[in-house]
Amino acid sequence: MRIPSKVCSQPWIHIVEKDFEKLKDIVGSKEKIIVRDEQYVQTLSIVDEKLDQYVGKEVQLTGFIYKDEGFEENQAVISRYVVSCCVADASVYGLLVQDKDMANLEPDTWVNVSGIIDAVDFNGRKMPVITHPVFEKVEQPENPYVEEFYIKIE
Length: 154
What we know:
Blueprint: H1 11-29, E1 32-34, H2 40-49, H3 51-54, E2 58-66, E3 75-83, E4 91-98, E5 110-122, E6 125-137, E7 145-147
Parallel strand pairs: 1-2, 3-7, 4-6
Antiparallel strand pairs: 2-3, 2-5, 3-4, 5-6
């Protein structure tokens, strides 16, 4: 995710870009990538941008099962609602999972999933996919939304 340069005159944008660069270093150095709410969109964007660098690494994230009508029975996305401005503009964002057990999980079920990042051709686009997933059903978080432009680096 790149922020348009015309917006970069805002002082907080420089902080977000600086934190995003720091997050790239952190994610790149980890063997197991834990996708936290405070860095959800940014972490998945980093993996997507440099997918070949992350193939074979373990990933863990929490989200709900999203199944599109175009998916095969063994496919779903572990998703969160992403807010850019307000809840009314929320959209679904997540990681594709391919596994025979996906057929047993109902849409909108909240799960914590761990698995291995691989690459798959999906509708003509190379994208990350979680393989060999291990699922744990969890309760919906108090805040099911994640923010697009918020990064908390610890």
